[in-house]
Amino acid sequence: MAWEHLRPGSSPVDWCEKNYLISSNIAEFVNTISNFLFILLPPILMCLFKDYGRFVTPGIHLVWTLLIIVGLSSMYFHATLSLLGQLLDELAILWVFMAAYSLFCPKRYYPKFCNKNRRVFSILMFVSAITATGLSLWKPIVNAFVLMAMGVPTMYMLYKELKRVRDQRVYRLGLRSTAVWLIAVFCWINDRMFCDVWSAISFPYLHGFWHVFIFIASYTVLVVYAYFYVENELPQRQPLLKYWPVDEFEFGIPFISIQNPGAHYKSDI
């Protein structure tokens, strides 16, 4: 029955945190509230990337919106541990990947048949997302592992692009993003694979830390790729990595400022 998928506990996935321990209404309390950055930070990023959306691509705001959906879906999943919540969470992440690839994947990594045309590549990503959405309904238990694996080519391309970048601020942000991503992966694997060990020391909350670290890694990687896109394809726009609220403090919120918004360009997007 379709209603069974809405039932709390209907998901085959259950994380290390003990269920209903803190609240009788929320299955995994820490895992639920630890999604707060997904809700709070994207609206700020939308404001900071206002000029980017106007003069480069409005698609950047779609990515920030999808991150909010990821946060809301993850909160629902961990609060209910329902199969519907799991699928909403995982599909939201999938569509963030596909939207980000469509917008910012450097053309040098396109399959040959795309002929370095972003429109063709975006269609490929859309078809792939539709196909993966269907497959995710078939074997929900493997979805999380597939999504984790999708981070590998993202970080490999980041490594290759950082070897090309000239702006040392961008280079340092890329390194910090990679380090935070590795910490996030460590938390995810340990919570998933070594729950007994962490429960034995009364700390079954690594998945909550995963939410915090993976958001930081995700949005900072997106900022770096957003810089690469302008630098590679619209260099006349003169992208500049800045930080808010204090530009000299590199551990603030990074964003891309467009120094020459009036430059004429022709894009295939």
UniProtKB/TrEMBL annotation:
GO terms for biological process: ceramide catabolic process. Ca(2+) binds at residues 14-15, 17, 19, 28. Its cofactor is Zn(2+). Coiled coil: none annotated. The keyword Cell division does not apply. It is a multi-pass membrane protein. The keyword Nucleotide-binding does not apply. It comes from the Eukaryota. The chain crosses the membrane at residues 29-49, 61-79, 91-109, 121-138, 144-159, 171-189, 209-230. InterPro entries: ACER. Keywords: Calcium, Hydrolase, Lipid metabolism, Membrane, Metal-binding, Transmembrane, Transmembrane helix, Zinc. Its EC number is 3.5.1.-. It is an enzyme of class 3 (hydrolase). One of its GO terms (cellular component) is membrane. Zn(2+) binds at residues 78, 207, 211. It is found in: Membrane. One of its GO terms (molecular function) is metal ion binding. Hydrolyzes the sphingolipid ceramide into sphingosine and free fatty acid. Belongs to the alkaline ceramidase family. This is Alkaline ceramidase. It comes from Glossina austeni.
